[in-house]
Amino acid sequence: LDSNSKESILKALNLAEHVEKTAGEFYKTEVEKTKGNELEAFFTFMVKEEDMHLAKIQELKSQIKNGGEVTKIGFQQNAAPEIHSISAGQEEMTAILYALWREKKAQDFYEKAAARTEGNVRVFFEELAVFERGHVELLEEYVELMQNSNELIMG
């Protein structure tokens, strides 16, 4: 990633767009699968997060394509749902662990993109990395809250 190259930054943003779009689709599917249980609120929250990230990525892409000054793009903070205990089966555990893996990969990507960019583009990627780190922490907390997680993981 060349920090001064418009094409290079647009490539990174295209990849980021794909990351957020596919994550949003995954979470939308999980909302449907978890209707009526404690994980539905979490997956609904994640759909909102990914949709917001996608819109902000598209906003930055537009600024870069138009060749104007890249302004600082702010993110709104959504409140994560309070979940106190989770009784989950194998399918829910698999979804949570897959989500955890995806969020860690996204965090890593955004941290690397931030390290290779400058100015407001760097700030943008740093903020996305912070969001993803928050998602990782939330998912790790959910794994801990799962009443039967050791049994499900260890068999």
Structural description of this entry:
The protein has 155 residues and is mainly α. 74% of the residues lie in helices and 0% in strands. It contains 5 helices and no strands. The chain has helices spanning 6-33, 39-65, 90-115, 119-145, 149-154. α1 (6-33) packs antiparallel against α3 (90-115). The longest helix has 28 residues, at 6-33.
Summary of the model, kept short:
By secondary structure, the chain is mainly α. The chain is built from five helices and no strands. The mean pLDDT is 88.
Overall average residue pLDDT = 88
Number of helices: 5
Number of strands: 0
Please state the structural category. Answer: mainly alpha
Secondary-structure element string:
HHHHH
In whole angstroms, the N-to-C terminal distance is 43 Å
What does the main sheet amount to? none
Which bin fits the share of residues in helices? over 70%
Rough outline: elongated
> Can you tell me the residue ranges where pLDDT is under 50 for at least 5 consecutive residues?
none
Strand content: under 5%
Measured on Cα atoms, how large is the radius of gyration? 17 Å
